[in-house]
Amino acid sequence: MQLSKRLGAVAGEVMADSCVADIGCDHAYVAIYLAQNSIVKHMIAMDVRKGPLEKAKTNIDEYGLSDQIEVRLSDGAKELKAGEVDTIVIAGMGGALITKILEESIQVLDQVTSLVLQPQTEVPAVRRFLHKNHFMIEKEIMLIEDEKYYTVLSAKPGEQNRFNLVEYEFGKYLLEKKDAVLWEFLKNQIDKYEDILDKLMKNSKNIIRQEEIKETCRLLRLGLLYYEEDSKGEDNCDRNH
C-alpha cells in the first residue's frame, strides 16, 4: 500500500507494536499500511458511513489482512471499549469534530497512551483540547501536498506547560525548530491577509472586519519572529495601516 504524503506522515507517527483504532478510517489505507508492514499488533478501522466501510472491507480482503484488521461501524469512538487499544488515530476531519469525538469518549481516552491527530481545520483548538485533557504534545509535523498545508500532532498522557497564544496558533515545536513549511505558510498568509486588508481599507467601512484582519496579521508577524534570523525585514503586514 502506497500512501499519500499526508497519510504517510500520519502512519509514521504510530508506534511499533501498538493496538490502534483508526477513527474515520474511510477506505482503511492507513490501517492496511500499518498491518501490511507489521507495525501494529492489531487494528480496528472505524467509520460512521456504511459506504466507505464496505470499501474498507473490500480493500482489507484484497490485501489478505482481514485477520489483522477489524472493521467496525461506529459514530466516532462510541463503539470502542476502554482499554481495547492504546493508540487512536484520527485524520482528515475538522478540528471541532476531532475534539467532539474525543470528548464524547473520555473513558476510552483515559486508557490510551498515544494520539495521532491530523485536523484539517481548527488546529489551535485541538492543541488546547489536548492540554485541557491532560495530554502532552510531543511532536508536530507540517507538510504541503497538492498545494494544501497539513499538520500532524502526536500526543501522550501527561502535563505540559501551557503554550502562549502564538504557540497555540501555529505550534510551539514547529516554531522552535523554525520549520520550513510553517515559515512558507506564515509568509503566504501574511501576503493573503495584507491584500485583503488593503482592499478593505479602500473599499469598505467595516471597521470590525478591518480590526480582525489586523489581529490576524499581528499573530502571523509574531510567528515570524521565531524565524528572526531568517526573516528579518521580510514582514511588513499592515505596516502602513
From TrEMBL:
Q: Which GO terms describe its biological process?
A: methylation
Question: What's the short name of a Pfam family annotated to this entry?
Answer: TrmK
Coiled coil (UniProt feature)? 183-210
- Record GO terms (molecular function): tRNA (adenine(22)-N1)-methyltransferase activity
Q: Known Gene3D superfamilies for this protein?
A: Vaccinia Virus protein VP39
Q: Which residues form the signal peptide?
A: none
Q: Which domain of life is it from?
A: Bacteria
Which keywords accompany this UniProt record?
Answer: Coiled coil, Methyltransferase, Transferase
InterPro entries from the UniProt entry = SAM-dependent_MTases_sf, TrmK
**Does Transferase show up as a keyword for this record?**
yes
What is the official name of this protein in its record? tRNA (Adenine22-N1)-methyltransferase
